[in-house]
Amino acid sequence: MAYIFANAKLMIEWDEYNLIGDVFPRGRERKEDRVKDSKSHPIQFYIYDTSINNRKPFEIKATHKKISFIDIKKLLNVNHLRLFNSDGAEYFEDDLKYIKNKAVLYATKGEDFDSNSCFGEYEMSKKLGEGGFGNVYLARHRQTGENFAIKIIKTENIGSVSDIDNIFVEAEILKSLNHENIVKVYNCLTLKNMEVAIIMECLQGG
């Protein structure tokens, strides 16, 4: 059975399987043990409604791996639903059981994924610096409150299409790196007016 609360939180309680971490079933454990374990370790993830600007995400908590599109449609009050991750990969009904704890998804009412949806997670504030190709801003994540540095690149200032492609190639390489001497890159998005946004960690005193 499912409960939808006024504070936009959805709690789903089931009694067959557990939901822990990567949300895989626990094999041959007794049903009673699975139920007990699942209630003490619920999964929690977030869904942004891309039709609403400057919004906080819906928080979903569940004690069962089998969360359905019907439950999410009720929460968002929509008739048509498509779900995507931050890379634009679409989630279908069967994919929901593999959602990881603390995952973030984006919901549309049937439209294709738009990377501007991800950019809406951040609240831009002061300018930190500027250069020949764009500016760097301080931004706060609406959900976590964490600070990030976002570099906005104006592609009109870049000479060729291949140079623009190289920006994304470089960003993807940096996303895969984790080193104390390299600024961490979390995402690279294409915005309206063909601007590019690079989401980076915010370092103090640099």
Fold blueprint:
Elements: E1 2-4, E2 9-12, H1 31-40, E3 43-49, E4 58-62, H2 69-76, E5 82-84, E6 90-91, E7 104-108, H3 116-119, E8 122-130, E9 134-141, E10 147-154, H4 161-175, E11 185-190, E12 195-201
Task: Write structural notes for this entry.
Helix content is 18%, strand content 33%. With 206 residues, it is α+β, with helices and mostly antiparallel strands. It folds into 2 domains: 2-114, Ubiquitin-like (UB roll) (Roll); 121-201, Phosphorylase Kinase, domain 1. The chain has a 7-stranded mixed β-sheet, covered by helices on one side.
| Residues in helix, % | 10-25%
Order of helices and strands: EEHEEHEEEHEEEHEE
The radius of gyration over CA amounts to: 20 Å
CATH class of the largest domain: Alpha Beta
Q: What's the multimeric state? A: single chain
Distance between the termini: 52 Å
Structural category is: alpha+beta
**CATH fold category name of the largest domain:** Ubiquitin-like (UB roll)
Strand-residue proportion? 25-35%
The major sheet is characterized as: 7 strands, mixed
| Global outline | globular
Supply the number of structural domains.
Answer: 2
User: Order of strands across the widest beta sheet?
Assistant: 1-2-4-3-7-5-6
Q: CATH homologous superfamily name of the largest domain?
A: Doublecortin domain
Stretches with pLDDT under 50, minimum 5 residues:
1-40
* Average pLDDT: 75
Number-wise, the strands total 12
Question: From the coordinates shown, what is the CATH architecture of the largest domain?
Answer: Roll
- Number of helices in the DSSP assignment: 4
Keywords:
2 domains, alpha+beta, 12 strands, Ubiquitin-like (UB roll), seven-stranded mixed sheet, 4 helices, Phosphorylase Kinase, domain 1, 206 residues, disordered N terminus, five-stranded antiparallel sheet, globular
